Amino acid sequence: MNVVIDNKAIEVAESTTILDAAETLGIHIPTLCHLKLPHLGVNNCPAGCRICVVEVEGRRNLAPACATKCTEGMKITTSSIRVMNARKTVMQMILSDHPKDCLTCSKSGNCDLQAMATRLGIRHIPGEKYAKMSSYNPDTSPSVIRDMDKCILCRRCETMCNEVQSVGALHAAYRGFDAIVTPAFEQNLEKSTCTFCGQCVAVCPTGALTEFDSTAKVVRMLANPAKTVVVQAAPAVRAALGEEFGMKPGTLVTGKLAAALRRLGFDYVFDTDFAADLTIMEEGAELLDRLKKHLAGDKTVRLPMLTSCCPAWVNFIETYFSDMLDVPSTARSPQQMFGSIAKNYFAAKIGVKREEMVVVSVMPCLAKKYECARDEFKVKGNPDVDFSISTRELAHLIKEANINLAELPDEDFDSPLGSSTGAAVIFGTTGGVIEAAVRTAYELHLKKTLPKVDFEQLRGMEGIRSATVDFDGLELRIGIAHGLGNARKLLEDVRNGKQTFHAIEIMACPGGCIGGAGQPLHHGNESVLEARAAALYREDKSKSLRKSHENPDIIRLYNEYLGKPLSHRSHELLHTSYHKKGVL
Amino acid sequence: MKRRITVCGGTGCKASASAKILENFKALTSSLEDVEVAQVGCFGFCEKGPIVKIMPEGTFYVEVKPEDVEELVEEHIKKGKRIDRLLYTNPVTGLHVEDSTHMDFYRKQQRVAIRNCGTIDPENIEEYLAERGYDALKLVLNNKPEWTVAQIKESGLRGRGGGGFPTGLKWEIAAANKAEQKYVVCNADEGDPGAFMDRSIMEGDPHSVIEAMAICGYAIGANKGLVYIRAEYPLAVHRLQVAIKQARENGMLGSNIMKSGFGFDIEIRYGAGAFVCGEETALIHSMEGERGEPTFKPPFPAEKGYKGFPTNVNNVETLANIPVILLNGAKWFASIGTEKSKGTKVFALAGKINNVGLIEVPMGTTLREVIFEIGGGIKDGKKFKAVQTGGPSGGCLTEKHLDMSIDYENLLAAGSMMGSGGMIVMDEDDCMVSVAKFYLEFTVEESCGKCAPCRIGNRRLYELLEQITEGKADMDDLDRLRNMSNVIKDTALCGLGQTSPNPVLSTLDNFYEEYKAHVLEKHCPAGKCSALTQYIIDEEACSGCTACARSCPAMAIKGERKQPHTIDLSLCIRCGACLTRCKFNAIYTK
Question: Which residues, including other chains, have CB under 8 Å from residue B261's CB and lie 6 or more apart?
């Protein structure tokens, strides 16, 4: 159909919105609440902010460009005086109920609202002196901070939490000026069904939802000469950190990451990849153990076995599938395995007391902050991992320390907790954990070398995938889900017996850890996720060792300390148990 | 002579003990032959309730008390002597008026939608059947669905809930959308303050709504009806429940209505009284158990409504018109009213008007006829100042609009709207800035909060009006008030927000001088804004008794004993204590 936008004629497909039609003409209509996530099939379009309004000939009032579909012969003006006045006035209204602490807001410089105020040339807010402002109690959890005074009710978080993640922790409540997005009964997030996946934070346009920032505490530890500060960095971090420094999505900065951490003053710069290899040893052994028992006809053993690396996913199953708590692997996540090994094995090795060692993790994730604070992972109140900071927080630290990441030389991680295989690095993307597990399980089970290391059938961005892997005649059925909404669907199928699997990998965030809530904001651009995933597979390919059980330092760790996978000591240090969480 | 005593059983009269009146009549006439006592729906003349009407003579008793019943039975029923003191008195002539047809309140009315209110017992289906009830449904079932749609289209009926969308067209669209399931929804979420026509219809003639829903179901191909009603309407809910049960028992609802093979049934859904849930998409979300907030249209409910299925939403009054249109013919209905607004409209008269109540007049009747003839003019002989039509988001119309004939287009052009038919009259004592503030307070409270202009903008409008009524605003603020109002109208998501600034804009247009007085002179001409009221002591009249000074909690009054006192306005808190205390009428306000 034919429409005219700002005197330019264009032909568009049926049901194209004015916003999209204008975009193809290079006319960028400003939007605030709208967020399209094509790869998730989600379009947050409440048409609530009214910033994108345009004039349509013959129409009584202005039309929101995001939600209004083009009709034949439509004549649209995107920037008449009437439109500009409306946008500016509405923006002034929104700002009249928004705190003015931009200078110290953690979202400053990365805030859609701030950018829009600049774009629309807002210089003052009329009536400010008597305008009542919303005032809510801040809600602080170990992962996410909610400051609802800064909420503009774009409802993006609600869409993520409900439609994408199916967690149902956040929903609009109350009405009019008092409307707010909140957990049920205005509880704190910690008491809600929140899994701390943080996808709400990843899409929040303002400072209303932000991560709990631990950088100041980390700096204090670095400044304390009595502390030995050990850092671990997760696989997905190296594929995204560069974006915060203007590099193209998918730029690998593994060597520069190690160098930057060293410049920041960490005493030992290690790699979570090492612990990922360790996870495979334990999880792979557990899978083989369960599989053998199952094949031998043992009815007490539960299959499928679910991966347990993702802490948001663990929170989710504890809340919504508490009848299935014997299904996930008991293996701790790589972050926690690392912490445990660092504070037990490594601390003893270098002669440092547990209390004098501080373990910091750099994670693409916000749920990791919650995970490291769990009681299961503390010894006499001392956590195995003291602080978990996100990729974004690390970027802030690097900038604050005036380190030019791009110009740093590539350096290696320290030994012994810094060596890793290609299997570990692909943990950062959906399908990676299960591929790593299959590589090791195959060779340990069949006692022969894999003909081909790459399992293409396990890769991709499809939300729910299934594949079979041939274990010399035994067809291993594997399920993969990323995004908790997909996880729910897959789990319900398993629970109802609609589908059977031997093993399932679940990651809470769309794309896996590369799309984690602690990563540089990707603003719903799927190509960013694809580039990050490709980077991890590239790193895997470039490694000389690509199977976890071939990691020499892992072999040494078992020889020196743990004995063998699933040993008594392994159980004590590397495994955990799950607990039912109330829904309300 | 067989007599029928009808007692109003509407919520208003019930609040004034009409149930007791009914009970007394039943007790005192139980032994009498040829006397029937019935509870009926609202007569509309609520100002003078409780109302008792005795047929066949049509004697219309007003303000009846339970203790009057004995006299009524003894004198009127037994001896045929009417009791003059219980008759309505024409305020102009001072004469008693025996029957309603000769009362100014009823003379210009034409009752179509509320035809059975005040006539039949709403809890007795037989009485509805006797008034050709369910004949329209029978007629419809004997024709093709398209016939009904064509009839409604031809009648020119438009939505009575506020929007004024052509009902026949709405049905046609819903009928054209093919789906395995469709719904007919009756919007009974009447939310305008002061409006109670929908409640009265459900209380007085519930079967007309049920019949119309079944007709609509047949016409659009739906077999399921839902009534979304405010839970705060217990009597209406009860009468609907009774009526639905009776309709099922009589085969007017169910799987095979009148053995036609057509099945239709109705469920009641309760609303929690949110104004915005009268907006059809919000109403549907509320019924689905979701947050009651509107969504962008299109898709319209006719395409994607309740649970994603095509849904036709009509308001109660609209539906009440349907059976009678089909029985009397589309042409008959189209002959009433104006060119673009056909039929009649029910209005709820309220405010500073003599005859408060529910009226139904043909479209095209003038405001003057409604207010001064039917409504009996302004209370206490005061001067008419404005009439607010269309509920909280309608506009205030003035003297110059009085001879305008009422229809959808004219009201819109005058800066107001039809809305659901609220009509609130104001006199010279009303401050129009305060009136605008009052309505804004309502929309601020009732905004769902989804879109920014309504959520924040209306609140800011309210705050600005507060500044004006407190004498803290300047002339730039008046420009801002207008600009914000225009932008909210232009950008809000749903009908609530798009109309909420109407009271502000219409008062700015029609009473700008009054705004200016508040801003420039810090003076409220109507004397309503307490912050702007000045208490002044008349030196001549003051005896210097010191009573005022002693009563003043702010110590704002100074003066020697037996000398005239003065009020320090900078200290005065405008509480009025001095004024009530002064025995010499020496204190006045300005």
Answer: none
